[in-house]
């Protein structure tokens, strides 16, 4: 692809939860201000600072995009998207002044600072652009052939499961593509999703990528991300009550739609303490994104049973670094007790025989106040303020794990 060709060619080329969260922000706290920071958790062979000039040019092109009328009509056809929100999106475009790129030593620094109705929409686009720019020089016929070989092996394993084991499962195997943010390239993700959709119609339930869902006529998948909960740490509610406030806000916006709740913003213990009978009945299920998935799943089932809710009426969605093998193992373990589904990202869209980038772009402050995620996995905690991090741990009685590195300054 020529360097002057935009990597992002549609504002639908992002994850559904960006649209669903943005609708809540627009309706319920439109004046909120957010700051986001970029991090790379591994050490790529080529410094990401070498991408700066190309990234700046791609961001310029990104900020020229608008929604087409056909795209707006598609969004208007999703039952949980409200008409006034689509009217807003008709006027929407990303503002270049809210995102900056610089170099800090050998690190690429990307910062987004602006109203959340703008700032939160940059994330997936930026991560997809950085990935594609990084892997573009490594792209070759041999790399593509290896990617295809690996993809076909995964499809064969899933087909074997359907042929030999599906009949013995209480609940069906359901897999979705969650791979936009760390994809090898835009066209490679399209190839992967098309193959999954064609080869596994009974297993493949959709994609988080709204553009591909529209193009292929399949279901867009997604609800909320960590930033949604984190924002409520700074939106005027008592800190101890921020999770309940976020869940209630979601319920009021969607009235029963999009009912999978994320659990690991301050850890599973703190989440279950807030996820009482009211929320457990209103939400369809829970999403796992850090920590041991087996321990997490067993605790979720036990919580439902404690509340006298039949776990078989609920769903657990797993989305933390899954492979086909790990998804099938979780399916075998949990399907006798509860419905399960799987969002697989990098393992589908960037398994080419090259080391993927471990990049994130996270909310670090809202309305001038620090916010944080206390992950159930060591190394995923991200906060720019150690004092607030310590206070958050104290409020929710979350000990600082010995293996957790210091919060990134």
Q: Could you explain how this protein is built, in words?
A:
This protein is an alpha/beta fold. It has 17 helices and 11 strands. The protein has helices spanning 16-28, 52-62, 69-76, 83-90, 116-119, 123-135, 141-164, 186-199, 210-216, 226-231, 242-254, 268-274, 277-282, 293-306, 324-334, 346-349, 386-396, and strands at 33-40, 99-104, 107-115, 175-177, 204-207, 260-262, 285-288, 315-318, 339-344, 359-366, 369-370. It has a 6-stranded parallel beta sheet. Strands 2-3-1-10-11 form a 5-stranded antiparallel beta sheet. Helix 2 packs across helix 6 (123-135) and helix 3 (69-76) runs antiparallel to helix 4. The model has no long low-confidence stretch (mean pLDDT 95).
